[in-house]
Amino acid sequence: MSRDMVQDNVESRIQALAPWFHNMELDGIKTAPEHFLGDYPTFKWNGFRHLVPLDMRGRRVLDIGCNAGFYSLEMKRRGADLVVGIDSDPRYLAQARLAADIAGLTIEFEQLSVYDVGQLGQKFDFVIFMGVLYHLRHPLLALDLIYEHVAESDLLFQSMLRGKRQVSPVQANYEFEDTAPFEDDGFPRMTFIEHNYAADPTNWWVPNRAGMEAMLRSAGFRIEAATEDEVYLCCRGHRPVMADAPPRIAAVSSPDP
């Protein structure tokens, strides 16, 4: 088969799975050249790639909400022994499998939500949880489940943040009559979106920076490094004494028609 025929075959396979939310270059072909965010997620990756070890050999990586597999592919290119990508959307997984196939990389992809991570039955040295939290109805539960079931060491995390960037010191206790912290723009908070934000009905909760950092700590993750915008590199630490373990969530079979 000629190079032109191979190129045409790759391009047709890519087009068959359009539209792509990740603008990736596969065998010289851009999957989403007109992406509304531009060269996404490459420009995002370039802003925090220094947080990820260049040599991932010996590491087991879990990419939660992997979408079309951009970060999964990058981890495998850095030599990770095992990379597992999960997503609840089968179309994204089809794109991810195609991307891995064209790149010649061995990556496992499974259709699971973050609430299902206990079903994987194993721990990972490096967990990626990027761009998912604000799409969840139960964000703190998701962090608790990651801590409980899959995060053995590092967590690479990102969430959309809104509100003031300042982070005020948090006391161990506040008196009931003290309402001043709730007027402080640097106090941890989450904003609930009842309807739509950015025309997306899955945008449910948006934290400020203080709120995001507080949630990570509350789930048991110690923040080791962060970018100036929204990305955190965390390490598994200790959960607060009053933080209960998350409930067991079992897959429920659909009723027979």
From TrEMBL:
Biological-process GO terms, alphabetical: methylation
GO molecular function annotations of the record: methyltransferase activity
SUPFAM superfamilies: S-adenosyl-L-methionine-dependent methyltransferases
This protein's UniProt keywords: Methyltransferase, Transferase
Annotated InterPro entries: Meth_Rta_06860 (IPR027554), Mo5U34_MeTrfas-like (IPR027555), SAM-dependent_MTases_sf (IPR029063)
Name of the protein: TIGR04290 family methyltransferase
